[in-house]
# Entry
Amino acid sequence: MTMKLTATAAVMSALVAGAAAAQERISIVGSSTVFPFSTTVAEHFGKATDFATPVVESTGSGGGLKLFCAGAGLDTPDITNASRRIKASEVATCAENGVTEITEVKIGYDGIVMANSREAVPFELTLRDIFLALAANVPDGNGGTMPNPNATWADVNPALPEIRIEVMGPPPTSGTRDAFSELAMEGGCDTFEMVEAMEKADYKAFCHTIREDGAYIEAGENDNLIVQKLTANPNALGIFGYSFLEQNADLVQGSTVDGVAPEFEAIASGDYPVSRSLYFYVKNAHVGQVPGIEEFLAEFTAEDTWGEYGYLTEKGLIPMGEEEMEQFADDAANLTPLSM
Amino acid sequence: MSDLFTSAEKHLKSRHRSESRFRWMGRLAIGFSLGFLAIMLFSIFMLGKGALSRAEIALPVDLTAETVDQSDIEATSFSKLVRNTLFETFPEVTDRGERRRLLGVVSADAQYELKRQVLANPELLGQVQTIWFTASDDIDLYAKGEVDVTLPEDQRRLKDLELGWLNQLEVNGQLRSVFNKAFFTSGDSREPELAGILSALIGSIFSLMVCFALSFPLGIMAAIYLEEFAKKSRWSDFIEVNINNLAAVPSIVFGLLGLSIFLGVFGLPRSSPLVGGMVLALMTLPTIIIASRASLRSVPSSIREAALGMGATQVQSTFHHVMPLAMPGMLTGSIVGMARALGETAPLLMIGMVAFIVDVPQGFTDAATSLPVQVFLWADSPERSFLEKTSAAILVLLGLLIVMNIAAIVLRKKFERRY
# Structure
């Protein structure tokens, strides 16, 4: 009994000793889409400098911003990644909690692709096709709406093959899904004149709501899983990030959207319609308090990192144009606070 | 009379039949489960065995005084050295784009590998040395025969250009496959060829140590008090119901509790195995209490009565006689609870242990992750090579679970007493 108590006491004192020796390192949270890029930079940074390797958590864009805006103390994250721009409401929450100066750094673009198995014929879609195939409600032709009656791709557009609509994509909690709704669904929705007259809330509900009758299958957050399911089912289409298409080009092929194939150059130039910007946000108050933040920003915004031939393009990041890149590199170097 | 006899005989036959039917159904059920288990283990093993080897490429590196300052090795640009070595090995490659692809043949870590080797063996300096570099993940897959070179060029990541270089290297004996020690000795990496399991393994072990140190003594004390000392009352019933309920609470709830109490109120460091272990301890505590109480209850009351009859106090009777007999059951219950904790990711998500951690944690408050989280993160990575790492990490996790369960069985066999 006494022995056990001594052992417990020993463990507890070891814990306290460990607490004193904790190292101060950069803490990064946020989007799972930016995660692969952020971690790659963190790893390079840890190897090339004497600073400790930053800890990068994958919490999702919204979760990351919530943690980031929780306060200005050193126990809150220094940087948060986001696969969408920070919202005005989030900036307000930040300010309420004492996080007043934030630097916004855009890092590049990410394309969202619709792909199917190499064994099937490639799809040539338009945004309108995508909307008509996946929306919960579609225009009935008389100015009203009706539940989506389309069962096969040929119902949507006679030029498409006559196979059942079956699309596997991310669940509503995912940033990819948000971006897909905003870019692809809304883009297709806007091709109908009737939406112009709609109230804002009605418009959003009509354009963003994805059907729930089995044609759209929520396949989880794991894009590798979607690729696997596509190879098993040649009739299905999948929605995922460009980097997964690039890594699995032997198994799946990207559908063209509005005549543009999801390829590196097309996404970089903005010709491919379903592409979004990726960002990270820095808490200016922590610069100088947590060692290495400025150096980390310098590493991230170096030409060798995010440039056209940088190591992030290896990981699937689509770089920005030179002007934009210069502007955000300047913002990062000068810690220009975000103003909205 | 004879009527009764024949009818009983008829019944007997059908009763025997139904018994043998039941036995066969049982055997079938067990056979099915074992079969599926075997298929699962086999497929994970087949996928994961690739992680045990890795491809290396030999390159002649010029380490003479012209390229390396012999007095100040640190000042040398090793990335330039690696770059020039590759360009000299394949002098026919002059196009900028092609040269970039050529640099991608070796892992991104090549310059650090070279630096480490030179610093460790200064006698290499002064001449041209053949150095083995870790190959990049695409080359590694090729060396393992997992790249289908018959596909059209635009469907493979390795183009004809690279295949030509690889051919040349193979013919000259500059491509080899070695045991992938780095998988067990290094932390996570975004480059599949460099990624290792050590930081996650150490993180898991630290968390479990904290978890055990907290939940075992607390759980056993609570069980002993409730079983041996507490009077049966409404209160004790109420507590019992609550403990049973807690054992069934989804684990993410404990993570939320950890986030608001341990991180929010106590201000303990985020992502640390200390907090991870505390959250897991909360989760295992009910399991340990329930198992320990069952184990105490199975000690015959004659033991207690005999001890009390000899004049022992209740504390003496409990700690000298009952607890030693109940210990094997308590230990088994604890280890099973810990094994469950080992496989948890949900509660760790809330306290920041689902993270990319390169450095191996040195203490209980360093940032750390755990084995199942590592499996989750690798499974989510786009690079094809992470598939084998994922499976290998699952095998390590299963190995650890088997060790813990065997420990539970050994302890029980060693100390168990039957009456």
Remarks:
- Chain A touches chain B through 53 residues (CB under 8 Å).
- Chain A has two domains: 25-108+277-334, 111-275.
- The CA atoms of residues 298 and 333 of chain A lie 7 Å apart.
- Confidence is low (pLDDT under 50) at residues 13-23 of chain A.
